[in-house]
Write a structure and sequence with these properties.
Ig-like_fold; 0% helix; 55 strands; 6 domains; disulfide bond; 5-stranded antiparallel β-sheet; elongated; Immunoglobulin-like; Tie2 ligand-binding domain fold; FN3_dom; 5-stranded mixed β-sheet; mainly beta
Length: 712
């Protein structure tokens, strides 16, 4: 691990139950902590050495030392701790058998009594040397195909063997990368074995064989001087074997202690006259043992169940079984039930362990029929609630009655507590009040949620919690994010009235609508839209203080009609517009147009005139014309039709479709918002046209000629 910042002294440690062990790391960082099987080890922050006293079986597993906030980085230290249930050199269901001596660093399997051999060795007792390039229980595998059993082909490789051996370097190498050769005088996997050649510095580093056929030290024999030449006496099965230093303390020993036993000789005497007394054979004492003592891990604040299983024939009575705290007290431990199945009794207890107490040590005590007692210890932990270091709550959207938020998912690298996360909960509080409410009765699986049924224009505080599985699995509150709901649209329109108007201004008045119509805690203003009548001007929007009740709209044109409407505004929404109000600035009737200038043709008349000279200009003009008289006739027209044309120009207005040789009356009127001017009237004749053809000739006795002509 060339980029690692935290390195373990050893990747695997194997100890026997009841021994002490210390887990060590080397690091160049300041802030790190330990976890055991995923659970935080209390009071372990910034500790390079983690001592474990009187190790129990439930302390076996994976220990991880990691940089805070970088839990899943490859640069963290991982150590595997094996705890063998039997004392050293013992095996069997009751540890009643003595292990065969395993040579060259082999380890005795507590279940089978067989030796698990390290890389580079094989055999029933690992007595056969192979070399640094060989591995496997029977040594049948090689790291390269060069054919040299002592080649460095396995350098830099880590071999993980069956329990209780664990992981180790190849024979002849050590170190976290398995690339460092053994120091002089040591050999084997991880260089944990001691040479016993006559000169300890001349043994091979992989197998421990003596170079140049050097003899073994006194008291040692074998192919690599690892077999004691003095016989080893058998150890009585009932005699406890004192522990020697384990690999956890930095030294190893392959010597099984021997003991002298003195046989007890019982001499029987008989008499010819006195009969021998009848001897009653001793009755066997039922055997009993604690098979297991375990618990169900729960969330902080929940009751956990302790289960102690004992065996015996017959099973021990419940009166002979008790569960207490390690110190012996039993207050707070509640007995639940006990069940018997054949030779097994299972007893269950309930107790509360808080996060501040964890791990809390308990003991299951079994009183045997022979008067002795056996016990098993149990360290009980609880799951640590999930805590956000930084939830990064963001507001995505707001309406008048809802707010949508999103947040960063809980991450074990950055946050604290035990996962996995199965969902989230969102809580909200009216800012400044103590009215915390849960936004949803169900767990939220996503990291985005919309909180509904909120009050308009109200400020809320939002927090998020992450939950793990099980009752009380909810973690602690995240940091607060604050947001405000929007206002609704003001629901009433203003009523406008004109109190004054001049040549360049108009004064408007209004009344403020009732508060319940504001749609918000306050109105922010009144927006007035002003536009000129017709299409001669663009709209203009003006804002005024709502509470003023009056506003002067200035910079207007004189003699101009304006269309005005208004709406109240709050800080988010514009309300309903008022009805349109038409108001003119100092508007009077336009003056009459000047003299009409007209020219004619047979069927049309062209009319022009000068602009009005009054204060208020016309908006447009009306031209009315009618047939006044046909000049071929003596009388005036009495039923003539009047035509009307609207125009915005004063020059060259053509009146077409007229009768030839006829007199027309022409009237021009100026118009503005105040009304119509006095008319200006003129008369003009159209030009004569050519005569029509004779359509009928009648001859009588008296020669008279009657001609009918078409009307001109």
């Amino acid at each position: 691990m060339p980029n690692a910042t935290i390195l373990p002294e050893q990747t695997t440690l194997t100890v026997h139950e009841g021994e002490d062990v210390t887990l060590d790391v080397v690091t160049n960082v300041d802030d790190f902590r330990w976890r055991f099987n995923g659970d935080v080890v209390p009071d372990s922050r910034r500790k390079q050495s983690l001592p474990l006293a009187n190790v129990r079986l439930n302390q076996a597993g994976v220990y991880k030392c990691f940089l805070v906030g970088k839990r899943w980085d490859a640069g963290n230290a991982i150590l595997l701790l094996h705890v063998v249930r039997c004392p050293a050199y013992r095996w069997g269901s009751e540890c009643e058998h003595t292990c065969t001596e395993c040579l060259n660093g082999g380890k005795c399997d507590a279940d089978s009594g067989e030796c698990v051999c390290p890389p580079g060795f094989k055999g029933t007792t690992c007595e056969h040397v192979l070399g640094s390039n060989r591995f496997g229980q029977d040594g049948s595998f090689s790291c390269d195909t060069l054919g040299d059993d002592h080649s460095p082909g396995c350098r830099g490789k880590l071999f993980c063997l069956p329990d209780p051996f664990g992981c180790t370097c190849a024979a002849g190498f050590m170190g976290i990368n398995c690339t460092t050769e053994c120091n002089p005088g040591t050999y084997g996997a991880n260089c944990l074995q001691e040479c016993h050649c006559s000169s300890t510095n001349i043994c091979t580093k992989d197998t421990g064989e003596c170079n140049d056929r050097t003899a073994c030290q006194d008291g040692w024999t074998g192919v690599n001087c690892q077999v004691r030449s003095s016989p080893i006496q058998d150890v009585d099965d009932d005699t406890p074997i004192p522990g020697t230093k384990s690999t956890s303390s930095g030294t190893t020993s392959s010597i099984i202690p021997t003991f002298e036993t003195t046989p007890v000789i019982t001499e029987a005497t008989t008499s010819a006259t006195t009969p021998a007394p009848t001897t009653v054979p001793p009755q066997p004492i039922p055997s009993s043992a604690i098979e297991s003592f375990f618990y169900t891990k729960v969330n902080n604040g929940e009751l956990t169940t302790l289960v102690c299983i004992v065996t015996g024939s017959p099973p021990p009575t419940s009166e002979n079984i008790s569960v207490t705290y390690a110190a012996g007290a039993h207050e707070g431990i509640v007995f639940l039930e006990t069940n018997v199945t054949e030779s097994t009794r299972t007893s269950r207890y309930q107790v509360s362990v808080s996060l501040g107490e964890a791990p809390r040590n308990f003991m299951c005590l079994l009183r045997r029929p022979d008067g002795e007692s056996v016990s098993k210890d149990l360290a009980v932990s609880v799951y640590e609630p999930l805590t956000f270091d930084e939830a990064n709550i963001l507001v995505q959207d707001t309406t008048s009655h809802s707010i949508t938020i999103t947040w960063t998912p809980s991450n074990e690298n950055n946050d604290h507590g035990d996962g996995p996360v199965i969902g989230y909960r969102v809580y909200y509080t009216t800012h400044g009040q103590d009215d915390t409410a849960r936004a949803s009765s169900d767990l939220i699986r996503d990291t985005t949620f919309t909180i509904t049924n909120l009050t308009r224009d109200t400020e809320y505080d939002f927090r998020v919690t992450a939950s793990r599985e099980g009752p009380s699995g909810e973690g602690t509150f995240s940091s607060v994010e604050r947001a405000r709901t929007k206002c609704t649209v003001p629901s009433e329109a203003p009523v406008l009235s004109v109190s004054n108007n001049g040549r360049t201004f108009i004064t408007l008045d209004w009344k403020v609508i009732p508060e319940e119509s504001w749609g918000c805690s306050a109105l922010s203003g009144l927006e007035i839209n002003v536009s000129t009548d017709g299409q001669n001007g663009l709209p203009r929007t003006l804002s005024f203080d709502t509470t003023a009740d009056t506003a002067i709209i200035g910079q207007l044109e004189d003699c101009t009609t304006y269309n005005i409407n208004a709406a109240f505004r709050n800080k988010d929404e514009l309300g309903i517009s008022s009805e349109m109000l038409s108001v003119s600035t100092s508007l009077i009737l336009p003056a009459s147009v000047g003299v009409l200038h007209m020219s004619n043709s047979t069927t049309q008349i062209e009319v022009s005139w000068a602009l009005s000279s009054g204060l208020c200009s016309p908006d447009y003009y009306i031209i009315r014309y009618s047939l006044y008289q046909k000049l071929a006739c003596q009388s005036l027209e009495t039923t003539s039709s009047e035509f009307e044309v609207n125009t915005n120009v004063t020059q060259y207005n053509n009146l077409v479709g007229l009768e030839p040789y006829s007199r027309y009356k022409i009237t021009v009127i100026a118009v503005n918002g105040a009304g119509q001017s006095e008319p200006t009237i003129g008369y003009l004749d159209t030009s004569p046209g050519p005569p029509s053809n004779i359509t009928n000739v009648r001859v009588s006795n008296t020669i008279r000629i009657h001609m009918a002509t078409s009307q001109l």
